[in-house]
Design brief:
CATH superfamily of the largest domain in chain A: Response regulator
Organism (chains A, B): Aromatoleum toluolicum
Shape of chain A: elongated
Oligomer: homodimer
InterPro entries (chains A, B): CheY-like_superfamily, NreC/VraR/RcsB-like_REC, Sig_transdc_resp-reg_C-effctor, Sig_transdc_resp-reg_receiver, Tscrpt_reg_LuxR_C, WalR-like
Strand content of chain A: 5-15%
Number of helices of chain A: 11
CATH architecture of the largest domain in chain A: 3-Layer(aba) Sandwich
Protein name (chains A, B): Response regulator
Number of strands of chain A: 5
Largest interface: A-B, 27 and 28 residues
Keywords (chains A, B): DNA-binding, Phosphoprotein
CATH class of the largest domain in chain A: Alpha Beta
Largest sheet of chain A: 5 strands, parallel
Helix content of chain A: 40-55%
Order of helices and strands of chain A: EHEHEHEHEHHHHHHH
Pfam families (chains A, B): GerE, Response_reg
DNA sequence: TCTTCCATAGGAAAAATTCCCGACTTTTAT
DNA sequence: ATAAAAGTCGGGAATTTTTCCTATGGAAGA
Protein backbone atom coordinates (compact mmCIF):
# COMPACT_ATOMS: atom_id res chain seq x y z
CA UNK A 1 0.00 0.00 0.00
CA UNK A 2 1.31 3.37 -0.95
CA UNK A 3 1.24 6.08 1.68
CA UNK A 4 -1.18 8.98 1.89
CA UNK A 5 0.10 12.09 0.20
CA UNK A 6 -0.64 15.02 2.49
CA UNK A 7 -0.26 18.74 1.87
CA UNK A 8 -0.32 21.40 4.57
CA UNK A 9 -1.56 24.95 4.22
CA UNK A 10 -0.99 27.20 7.21
CA UNK A 11 0.51 30.65 7.28
CA UNK A 12 2.67 29.98 10.30
CA UNK A 13 5.90 28.24 9.43
CA UNK A 14 6.50 26.90 12.89
CA UNK A 15 3.05 25.44 13.05
CA UNK A 16 3.46 23.78 9.65
CA UNK A 17 6.69 22.22 10.75
CA UNK A 18 4.99 20.97 13.89
CA UNK A 19 2.30 19.24 11.86
CA UNK A 20 4.84 17.80 9.50
CA UNK A 21 6.88 16.24 12.26
CA UNK A 22 3.78 14.89 13.85
CA UNK A 23 2.48 13.36 10.66
CA UNK A 24 5.77 11.88 9.60
CA UNK A 25 5.74 9.70 12.67
CA UNK A 26 3.05 7.79 10.85
CA UNK A 27 4.52 5.34 8.32
CA UNK A 28 1.61 5.48 5.89
CA UNK A 29 1.68 9.24 5.63
CA UNK A 30 4.02 11.49 3.74
CA UNK A 31 3.91 15.25 3.61
CA UNK A 32 4.41 16.26 0.02
CA UNK A 33 3.95 20.02 0.19
CA UNK A 34 3.57 23.00 2.47
CA UNK A 35 1.95 26.32 1.61
CA UNK A 36 1.97 29.61 3.41
CA UNK A 37 -0.86 31.18 1.46
CA UNK A 38 -3.97 30.29 -0.45
CA UNK A 39 -2.80 31.14 -3.94
CA UNK A 40 0.25 28.95 -3.77
CA UNK A 41 -1.82 26.11 -2.44
CA UNK A 42 -4.39 26.44 -5.18
CA UNK A 43 -1.82 26.58 -7.94
CA UNK A 44 0.21 23.64 -6.73
CA UNK A 45 -2.77 21.43 -6.01
CA UNK A 46 -4.23 22.11 -9.44
CA UNK A 47 -1.07 20.81 -11.05
CA UNK A 48 0.11 18.12 -8.66
CA UNK A 49 -1.46 15.22 -6.91
CA UNK A 50 -2.17 15.00 -3.21
CA UNK A 51 -4.69 12.91 -1.33
CA UNK A 52 -5.35 15.19 1.57
CA UNK A 53 -5.00 18.89 2.26
CA UNK A 54 -4.82 20.14 5.81
CA UNK A 55 -6.12 23.67 5.61
CA UNK A 56 -6.01 26.44 8.17
CA UNK A 57 -8.93 28.72 7.36
CA UNK A 58 -7.48 31.77 9.03
CA UNK A 59 -4.97 32.39 6.28
CA UNK A 60 -4.01 35.58 4.53
CA UNK A 61 -4.63 36.04 0.82
CA UNK A 62 -8.28 36.80 1.39
CA UNK A 63 -10.69 34.02 1.92
CA UNK A 64 -9.68 30.58 3.10
CA UNK A 65 -13.30 29.62 2.53
CA UNK A 66 -13.25 30.87 -1.01
CA UNK A 67 -10.08 28.93 -1.74
CA UNK A 68 -11.66 25.82 -0.32
CA UNK A 69 -14.64 26.21 -2.61
CA UNK A 70 -12.54 26.80 -5.70
CA UNK A 71 -10.26 23.94 -4.84
CA UNK A 72 -13.06 21.44 -4.44
CA UNK A 73 -14.51 22.61 -7.74
CA UNK A 74 -11.20 22.15 -9.51
CA UNK A 75 -9.95 19.00 -7.81
CA UNK A 76 -12.98 17.13 -6.48
CA UNK A 77 -11.00 14.07 -5.49
CA UNK A 78 -8.89 16.03 -3.05
CA UNK A 79 -9.94 15.53 0.55
CA UNK A 80 -9.76 18.69 2.62
CA UNK A 81 -9.39 18.64 6.38
CA UNK A 82 -10.10 22.03 7.83
CA UNK A 83 -8.04 22.68 10.91
CA UNK A 84 -9.18 25.89 12.49
CA UNK A 85 -8.58 28.00 15.55
CA UNK A 86 -12.24 28.36 16.30
CA UNK A 87 -15.20 26.05 16.33
CA UNK A 88 -17.88 28.68 15.91
CA UNK A 89 -21.09 27.10 14.57
CA UNK A 90 -21.24 29.51 11.68
CA UNK A 91 -17.65 28.81 10.71
CA UNK A 92 -18.07 25.06 10.85
CA UNK A 93 -21.22 25.00 8.80
CA UNK A 94 -19.76 27.46 6.31
CA UNK A 95 -16.70 25.27 5.91
CA UNK A 96 -18.69 22.09 5.45
CA UNK A 97 -20.94 23.77 2.92
CA UNK A 98 -17.90 24.98 1.07
CA UNK A 99 -16.86 21.37 0.64
CA UNK A 100 -14.68 20.43 3.59
CA UNK A 101 -14.42 16.71 4.24
CA UNK A 102 -13.51 17.07 7.86
CA UNK A 103 -13.20 19.71 10.56
CA UNK A 104 -10.86 19.76 13.51
CA UNK A 105 -10.19 22.54 15.97
CA UNK A 106 -6.66 23.24 17.01
CA UNK A 107 -7.50 22.51 20.60
CA UNK A 108 -7.75 18.84 19.63
CA UNK A 109 -5.12 16.43 20.88
CA UNK A 110 -2.17 15.81 18.55
CA UNK A 111 -3.28 12.22 18.04
CA UNK A 112 -6.59 13.50 16.77
CA UNK A 113 -4.86 15.06 13.80
CA UNK A 114 -3.22 11.77 12.86
CA UNK A 115 -6.45 9.91 13.41
CA UNK A 116 -8.37 12.39 11.29
CA UNK A 117 -5.93 12.12 8.42
CA UNK A 118 -6.12 8.34 8.44
CA UNK A 119 -9.88 8.49 8.74
CA UNK A 120 -10.07 10.79 5.74
CA UNK A 121 -7.82 8.43 3.79
CA UNK A 122 -10.26 5.65 4.53
CA UNK A 123 -13.17 7.70 3.27
CA UNK A 124 -14.43 8.93 6.62
CA UNK A 125 -15.58 12.38 7.66
CA UNK A 126 -13.70 13.25 10.81
CA UNK A 127 -15.27 15.96 12.93
CA UNK A 128 -14.10 17.11 16.29
CA UNK A 129 -16.64 17.12 19.08
CA UNK A 130 -16.84 20.86 18.95
CA UNK A 131 -17.55 20.74 15.25
CA UNK A 132 -20.34 18.21 15.68
CA UNK A 133 -21.93 20.30 18.36
CA UNK A 134 -21.59 23.37 16.19
CA UNK A 135 -23.31 21.68 13.27
CA UNK A 136 -26.13 20.64 15.53
CA UNK A 137 -26.64 24.21 16.63
CA UNK A 138 -26.46 25.49 13.10
CA UNK A 139 -29.11 22.99 12.03
CA UNK A 140 -31.93 24.10 14.28
CA UNK A 141 -31.19 27.60 13.15
CA UNK A 142 -34.72 28.07 11.94
CA UNK A 143 -34.81 30.89 14.46
CA UNK A 144 -33.09 33.23 12.05
CA UNK A 145 -33.82 36.93 12.42
CA UNK A 146 -35.60 37.03 9.09
CA UNK A 147 -38.05 34.53 10.47
CA UNK A 148 -38.78 35.77 13.94
CA UNK A 149 -38.46 39.49 13.36
CA UNK A 150 -41.06 41.70 11.78
CA UNK A 151 -40.07 43.92 8.89
CA UNK A 152 -39.60 46.95 11.05
CA UNK A 153 -37.72 45.01 13.68
CA UNK A 154 -35.41 43.60 11.06
CA UNK A 155 -34.77 47.06 9.74
CA UNK A 156 -33.78 48.26 13.19
CA UNK A 157 -31.73 45.11 13.66
CA UNK A 158 -29.55 45.80 10.65
CA UNK A 159 -28.94 49.32 11.82
CA UNK A 160 -28.03 48.23 15.31
CA UNK A 161 -25.72 45.66 13.75
CA UNK A 162 -23.99 48.47 11.90
CA UNK A 163 -23.27 50.22 15.14
CA UNK A 164 -25.81 52.99 14.87
CA UNK A 165 -27.06 54.44 18.13
CA UNK A 166 -30.71 54.33 19.08
CA UNK A 167 -31.05 58.07 18.56
CA UNK A 168 -29.51 57.94 15.11
CA UNK A 169 -31.80 55.13 14.07
CA UNK A 170 -34.81 57.04 15.34
CA UNK A 171 -33.76 60.06 13.30
CA UNK A 172 -33.34 58.02 10.14
CA UNK A 173 -36.63 56.24 10.48
CA UNK A 174 -38.41 59.36 11.65
CA UNK A 175 -39.85 57.77 14.72
CA UNK A 176 -39.41 58.38 18.41
CA UNK A 177 -36.24 57.15 20.12
CA UNK A 178 -38.56 55.45 22.52
CA UNK A 179 -39.97 53.32 19.76
CA UNK A 180 -36.56 52.27 18.58
CA UNK A 181 -35.57 51.42 22.14
CA UNK A 182 -38.63 49.23 22.40
CA UNK A 183 -37.79 47.50 19.13
CA UNK A 184 -34.30 46.94 20.39
CA UNK A 185 -35.62 45.18 23.42
CA UNK A 186 -37.86 42.97 21.33
CA UNK A 187 -35.00 42.12 18.98
CA UNK A 188 -32.74 41.16 21.85
CA UNK A 189 -35.38 38.92 23.30
CA UNK A 190 -36.36 37.23 20.08
CA UNK A 191 -32.87 36.60 18.79
CA UNK A 192 -30.95 36.19 21.99
CA UNK A 193 -28.34 38.61 20.69
CA UNK A 194 -27.80 40.82 23.67
CA UNK A 195 -25.69 43.62 22.29
CA UNK A 196 -24.72 45.39 19.10
CA UNK A 197 -21.50 43.45 18.69
CA UNK A 198 -23.27 40.12 18.79
CA UNK A 199 -25.74 41.43 16.26
CA UNK A 200 -22.91 42.60 14.08
CA UNK A 201 -21.20 39.23 14.16
CA UNK A 202 -24.42 37.40 13.50
CA UNK A 203 -25.28 39.69 10.63
CA UNK A 204 -21.85 39.36 9.12
CA UNK A 205 -21.62 35.59 9.22
CA UNK A 206 -25.12 35.36 7.79
CA UNK A 207 -24.44 37.96 5.16
CA UNK A 208 -27.32 40.16 6.24
CA UNK A 209 -25.59 43.48 5.79
CA UNK A 210 -24.77 45.74 2.84
CA UNK B 1 26.92 22.11 30.42
CA UNK B 2 23.40 21.68 31.67
CA UNK B 3 20.60 22.20 29.19
CA UNK B 4 18.07 25.01 29.14
CA UNK B 5 14.86 24.16 30.91
CA UNK B 6 12.00 25.37 28.72
CA UNK B 7 8.29 25.51 29.45
CA UNK B 8 5.59 26.00 26.83
CA UNK B 9 2.26 27.73 27.32
CA UNK B 10 -0.13 27.55 24.39
CA UNK B 11 -3.74 26.57 24.38
CA UNK B 12 -3.48 24.40 21.30
CA UNK B 13 -2.23 20.94 22.07
CA UNK B 14 -1.07 20.24 18.56
CA UNK B 15 0.90 23.43 18.44
CA UNK B 16 2.55 22.69 21.78
CA UNK B 17 3.60 19.29 20.56
CA UNK B 18 5.00 20.88 17.45
CA UNK B 19 7.18 23.24 19.46
CA UNK B 20 8.28 20.47 21.73
CA UNK B 21 9.46 18.29 18.90
CA UNK B 22 11.21 21.19 17.32
CA UNK B 23 12.98 22.19 20.50
CA UNK B 24 14.00 18.71 21.46
CA UNK B 25 16.08 18.46 18.32
CA UNK B 26 18.41 20.83 20.11
CA UNK B 27 20.70 18.97 22.54
CA UNK B 28 21.03 21.83 25.01
CA UNK B 29 17.29 22.30 25.39
CA UNK B 30 14.79 20.26 27.30
CA UNK B 31 11.09 20.90 27.54
CA UNK B 32 10.08 20.48 31.16
CA UNK B 33 6.45 21.49 31.10
CA UNK B 34 3.48 22.34 28.92
CA UNK B 35 0.47 24.40 29.89
CA UNK B 36 -2.86 24.90 28.21
CA UNK B 37 -3.94 27.89 30.27
CA UNK B 38 -2.56 30.80 32.21
CA UNK B 39 -3.48 29.70 35.70
CA UNK B 40 -1.75 26.36 35.39
CA UNK B 41 1.31 28.02 34.00
CA UNK B 42 1.43 30.56 36.80
CA UNK B 43 0.99 27.99 39.51
CA UNK B 44 3.56 25.58 38.16
CA UNK B 45 6.17 28.22 37.43
CA UNK B 46 5.78 29.69 40.91
CA UNK B 47 6.68 26.35 42.42
CA UNK B 48 9.09 24.85 39.93
CA UNK B 49 12.15 26.01 38.14
CA UNK B 50 12.37 26.74 34.46
CA UNK B 51 14.76 28.98 32.57
CA UNK B 52 12.53 30.02 29.73
CA UNK B 53 8.82 30.22 29.15
CA UNK B 54 7.47 30.29 25.64
CA UNK B 55 4.18 32.08 25.97
CA UNK B 56 1.36 32.39 23.50
CA UNK B 57 -0.49 35.55 24.43
CA UNK B 58 -3.75 34.52 22.86
CA UNK B 59 -4.66 32.12 25.59
CA UNK B 60 -7.94 31.56 27.38
CA UNK B 61 -8.34 32.53 31.00
CA UNK B 62 -8.08 36.06 29.66
CA UNK B 63 -5.10 38.13 30.22
CA UNK B 64 -2.01 36.56 28.81
CA UNK B 65 -0.56 39.99 29.39
CA UNK B 66 -1.68 40.01 32.98
CA UNK B 67 -0.21 36.57 33.55
CA UNK B 68 3.02 37.74 32.03
CA UNK B 69 3.16 40.70 34.36
CA UNK B 70 2.34 38.65 37.45
CA UNK B 71 4.80 36.01 36.47
CA UNK B 72 7.66 38.44 36.04
CA UNK B 73 6.81 39.95 39.39
CA UNK B 74 6.81 36.58 41.09
CA UNK B 75 9.69 34.91 39.27
CA UNK B 76 11.93 37.67 37.95
CA UNK B 77 14.66 35.29 36.85
CA UNK B 78 12.34 33.55 34.43
CA UNK B 79 12.89 34.61 30.84
CA UNK B 80 9.70 34.92 28.87
CA UNK B 81 9.61 34.61 25.12
CA UNK B 82 6.31 35.81 23.76
CA UNK B 83 5.31 33.90 20.70
CA UNK B 84 2.27 35.45 19.19
CA UNK B 85 0.10 35.08 16.14
CA UNK B 86 0.44 38.70 15.24
CA UNK B 87 3.05 41.36 15.33
CA UNK B 88 0.71 44.30 15.81
CA UNK B 89 2.62 47.28 17.17
CA UNK B 90 0.26 47.67 20.09
CA UNK B 91 0.57 44.07 21.11
CA UNK B 92 4.32 44.07 20.91
CA UNK B 93 4.77 47.21 22.95
CA UNK B 94 2.28 46.06 25.55
CA UNK B 95 4.07 42.75 25.86
CA UNK B 96 7.47 44.31 26.20
CA UNK B 97 6.20 46.74 28.78
CA UNK B 98 4.65 43.88 30.69
CA UNK B 99 8.06 42.33 31.00
CA UNK B 100 8.62 40.07 28.02
CA UNK B 101 12.27 39.28 27.28
CA UNK B 102 11.70 38.49 23.65
CA UNK B 103 8.99 38.60 21.02
CA UNK B 104 8.57 36.31 18.04
CA UNK B 105 5.68 36.04 15.65
CA UNK B 106 4.49 32.65 14.58
CA UNK B 107 5.25 33.44 10.99
CA UNK B 108 8.93 33.21 11.86
CA UNK B 109 10.92 30.32 10.51
CA UNK B 110 11.15 27.28 12.77
CA UNK B 111 14.88 27.86 13.19
CA UNK B 112 14.10 31.30 14.55
CA UNK B 113 12.37 29.75 17.54
CA UNK B 114 15.39 27.64 18.36
CA UNK B 115 17.68 30.59 17.81
CA UNK B 116 15.54 32.81 20.01
CA UNK B 117 15.53 30.29 22.84
CA UNK B 118 19.29 29.95 22.72
CA UNK B 119 19.68 33.70 22.50
CA UNK B 120 17.49 34.16 25.55
CA UNK B 121 19.51 31.55 27.40
CA UNK B 122 22.60 33.58 26.62
CA UNK B 123 21.03 36.75 27.98
CA UNK B 124 19.92 38.24 24.68
CA UNK B 125 16.65 39.90 23.75
CA UNK B 126 15.46 38.22 20.59
CA UNK B 127 12.94 40.17 18.56
CA UNK B 128 11.59 39.17 15.21
CA UNK B 129 11.86 41.71 12.45
CA UNK B 130 8.18 42.36 12.65
CA UNK B 131 8.46 43.05 16.36
CA UNK B 132 11.27 45.53 15.88
CA UNK B 133 9.32 47.34 13.23
CA UNK B 134 6.27 47.29 15.45
CA UNK B 135 8.14 48.86 18.32
CA UNK B 136 9.26 51.60 16.00
CA UNK B 137 5.74 52.28 14.81
CA UNK B 138 4.31 52.19 18.28
CA UNK B 139 6.31 55.30 19.00
CA UNK B 140 4.81 57.69 16.47
CA UNK B 141 1.23 56.63 17.02
CA UNK B 142 0.76 58.67 20.13
CA UNK B 143 -3.01 58.87 19.91
CA UNK B 144 -3.44 55.14 19.95
CA UNK B 145 -5.30 53.35 22.75
CA UNK B 146 -2.19 51.43 23.69
CA UNK B 147 -0.51 54.74 24.41
CA UNK B 148 -3.17 56.58 26.28
CA UNK B 149 -4.59 53.65 28.20
CA UNK B 150 -3.07 52.12 31.27
CA UNK B 151 -2.42 48.39 31.40
CA UNK B 152 -5.65 47.69 33.19
CA UNK B 153 -7.63 49.96 30.95
CA UNK B 154 -6.18 48.29 27.89
CA UNK B 155 -7.13 44.92 29.27
CA UNK B 156 -10.70 46.02 29.77
CA UNK B 157 -10.65 47.61 26.33
CA UNK B 158 -9.79 44.35 24.60
CA UNK B 159 -12.55 42.56 26.46
CA UNK B 160 -15.09 45.20 25.60
CA UNK B 161 -13.95 44.97 22.01
CA UNK B 162 -14.68 41.28 22.12
CA UNK B 163 -18.22 41.96 23.14
CA UNK B 164 -17.97 40.94 26.76
CA UNK B 165 -20.42 42.59 29.11
CA UNK B 166 -19.26 44.69 32.02
CA UNK B 167 -20.36 42.03 34.49
CA UNK B 168 -18.51 39.27 32.68
CA UNK B 169 -15.36 41.31 32.59
CA UNK B 170 -15.66 42.07 36.27
CA UNK B 171 -16.06 38.37 37.01
CA UNK B 172 -13.03 37.43 34.95
CA UNK B 173 -10.85 40.10 36.46
CA UNK B 174 -12.23 39.51 39.93
CA UNK B 175 -13.05 43.13 40.55
CA UNK B 176 -16.27 44.99 41.15
CA UNK B 177 -18.56 45.65 38.22
CA UNK B 178 -18.42 49.24 39.36
CA UNK B 179 -14.73 49.38 38.71
CA UNK B 180 -15.09 47.97 35.23
CA UNK B 181 -17.87 50.42 34.48
CA UNK B 182 -15.59 53.23 35.54
CA UNK B 183 -12.81 51.93 33.32
CA UNK B 184 -15.23 51.75 30.46
CA UNK B 185 -16.07 55.39 30.88
CA UNK B 186 -12.42 56.34 30.97
CA UNK B 187 -11.71 54.28 27.86
CA UNK B 188 -14.54 55.86 25.96
CA UNK B 189 -13.33 59.31 26.86
CA UNK B 190 -9.69 58.70 26.14
CA UNK B 191 -10.17 56.90 22.86
CA UNK B 192 -13.34 58.50 21.58
CA UNK B 193 -14.75 55.06 20.82
CA UNK B 194 -18.25 55.32 22.17
CA UNK B 195 -19.49 51.77 22.02
CA UNK B 196 -18.34 48.18 21.88
CA UNK B 197 -18.79 47.89 18.15
CA UNK B 198 -16.51 50.84 17.49
CA UNK B 199 -13.96 49.35 19.83
CA UNK B 200 -14.24 46.08 18.02
CA UNK B 201 -13.67 47.70 14.66
CA UNK B 202 -10.76 49.70 15.95
CA UNK B 203 -9.23 46.66 17.57
CA UNK B 204 -9.71 44.61 14.44
CA UNK B 205 -8.15 47.07 12.06
CA UNK B 206 -5.24 47.48 14.43
CA UNK B 207 -5.00 43.76 15.02
CA UNK B 208 -5.25 44.08 18.76
CA UNK B 209 -7.34 40.97 19.21
CA UNK B 210 -6.56 37.33 18.94
C1' DT C 1 10.23 62.23 51.16
C1' DC C 2 6.93 64.16 48.29
C1' DT C 3 4.45 63.92 44.20
C1' DT C 4 2.21 61.61 40.66
C1' DC C 5 -0.01 57.84 38.49
C1' DC C 6 -2.62 53.68 38.83
C1' DA C 7 -6.08 50.27 40.59
C1' DT C 8 -9.99 49.94 43.12
C1' DA C 9 -14.65 51.16 44.44
C1' DG C 10 -18.71 53.83 46.72
C1' DG C 11 -22.53 57.38 46.14
C1' DA C 12 -25.45 60.39 43.53
C1' DA C 13 -27.17 61.93 39.32
C1' DA C 14 -28.12 61.17 34.54
C1' DA C 15 -29.11 58.27 30.76
C1' DA C 16 -30.52 54.01 28.65
C1' DT C 17 -33.25 49.89 28.82
C1' DT C 18 -36.97 47.11 30.06
C1' DC C 19 -41.67 46.12 31.04
C1' DC C 20 -46.44 47.09 30.67
C1' DC C 21 -49.86 49.22 28.39
C1' DG C 22 -53.03 51.51 24.90
C1' DA C 23 -54.36 53.25 20.19
C1' DC C 24 -54.56 52.45 15.66
C1' DT C 25 -53.70 49.87 11.11
C1' DT C 26 -53.03 45.86 8.27
C1' DT C 27 -53.30 41.06 7.44
C1' DT C 28 -55.33 36.58 8.03
C1' DA C 29 -58.57 33.16 8.98
C1' DT C 30 -63.15 31.57 9.46
C1' DA D 1 -67.55 40.16 6.17
C1' DT D 2 -66.18 40.11 10.55
C1' DA D 3 -63.40 38.66 14.24
C1' DA D 4 -58.80 37.53 15.59
C1' DA D 5 -54.03 38.14 15.21
C1' DA D 6 -50.10 40.61 14.29
C1' DG D 7 -47.55 44.92 13.43
C1' DT D 8 -46.41 49.93 14.23
C1' DC D 9 -45.90 53.50 17.28
C1' DG D 10 -45.08 55.67 21.68
C1' DG D 11 -46.16 57.03 26.87
C1' DG D 12 -45.11 56.06 31.90
C1' DA D 13 -42.84 53.74 35.58
C1' DA D 14 -39.41 50.72 37.26
C1' DT D 15 -34.94 49.07 36.66
C1' DT D 16 -30.25 48.92 35.10
C1' DT D 17 -26.25 51.07 33.19
C1' DT D 18 -23.35 54.82 32.71
C1' DT D 19 -21.30 58.92 34.09
C1' DC D 20 -19.14 62.01 37.27
C1' DC D 21 -17.01 62.92 41.55
C1' DT D 22 -14.52 61.49 45.43
C1' DA D 23 -11.38 58.64 48.24
C1' DT D 24 -7.97 55.16 49.76
C1' DG D 25 -3.81 52.60 49.37
C1' DG D 26 0.14 51.16 46.65
C1' DA D 27 3.96 51.77 43.45
C1' DA D 28 7.12 54.51 40.80
C1' DG D 29 9.82 58.43 40.21
C1' DA D 30 12.06 62.95 41.23
Amino acid sequence: MTGLRVAIADDHAVVRTGYRRLLELEPNVSVVAEFADCETAYTWLSANHADILILDLSMPGRGGLETLRRLKARVPTLKVLVFSMHGAPAMVSQAMQAGADGYLTKSSAPEALIAAVLDLGAGGQPLSEEAVRALGEAGNDSQAPHQVLSLREFQVFTMLAQGLAVDEIAARLCVSAKTVANYQTAIRQKTGLSNALEMFRYARTHALLE
